[in-house]
Amino acid sequence: MEQEGVRVNKFLSEAGFCSRREADKLIEQGRVTINGKVPEMGTKVLPTDEVRVNGKLINESEEPKIYLAVNKPVGIECTTNQSVRNNIVDFVNYPERIFPVGRLDKDSEGLIIMTNDGDIVNKILRARNNHEKEYIVTVDKPITDRFITRMGNGVPILGTVTKECRVERISNSTFRIFLTQGLNRQIRRMCEYFDYNVVALKRIRIINITLDVPVGKYREITKAEMDELNRLIGDSYKTEEGSLPKTEDKPDKNPAPTKDRKDFKKKFIEQRPLRNERRNPRNR
Question: CA 36 → CA 8, 11, 16, 51, 205, distances in Å?
């Protein structure tokens, strides 16, 4: 009877070495070995196996878990690749190895969770878990009621229609948006669809963790917050890939239909009057 094992990317995340996404990159680059051999993606690690990254032996972690709430400034990139200038690992400069939960655009600021717990990453990021994130967004022109309504109803970007979401006007050019998705540059793309450009974007909450430290600072997430977070994500699905793949930042000329073509066409047609109205002076 074969011994059971865990996939090598899960082993590395549970050892606190990196997230599963980062582990997959290391495996693809041939920097991971199991018993001296470079494994294929999905290879399982047995209790008797010796796993190394760049020649360094990785042991199952018994170290305390670290959870930080960081207020990321504009210009800092959410990557663990320390060859990238202004990466978040070097910026935070924490004495233990930690990595970010998901991404926050380089041009955006606000809350990012950093941890050494790779297992929690997938639960928080998985889109179908409907875990809410809250943002404050400032755009370059006056916001209309129609813009707020259309943003909330779903917008065709990246070959799909975004999930319906709550959008609230704060001022003439600022609004609040609550998302349960994490598409690449999602809010910026949604605004661009209606010919609005984002001037400033700040994430102020992830599930129950709120932003309450100055820009560039961080704090430890409290035990009470973690207990509540674990309760809220307790039934979440864990996956090999916690977040959606990064997509090239190209204009969306012909969004592909969703599974329900009729719903896609209906939403797409509903959005067009707002775009045309803004582009045609006669409609103003």
Answer: 14, 16, 21, 8, 43
Rg (C-alpha) for the chain, rounded Å, is 21
- In whole angstroms, what is the distance from residue 4 CA to residue 119 CA? 19
Condensed to tens digits (0 to 9), the pLDDT of residues 35-48 reads 999 999 889 888 77
CA proximity to 69, closest of 33, 106, 100, 90: 100
Count of CA atoms in the C-beta half-sphere (13 A) of 178: 10
Helical H segments across the chain, by residue range? 8-14, 20-28, 88-92, 118-125, 145-153, 186-193, 223-232, 261-279
In the chain, the amino acid numbered 113 is I
Catalytic residue among 49, 90, 105, 260: 105
pTM for this predicted structure: 0.68
235 is catalytic: no
Could you give the CA distance from residue 284 to residue 281 in angstroms, rounded to a whole number? 5
Among 193-197, 222-226, 254-258, name the one with the lowest average pLDDT: 254-258
What would the pLDDT profile of 211-234 be if each residue is shown by its tens digit?
999 999 999 999 999 999 988 887
Choose among 225, 187, 227, 185: nearest CA to 206.
225
CA angle 274, 200, 278 (to 5 degrees): 15
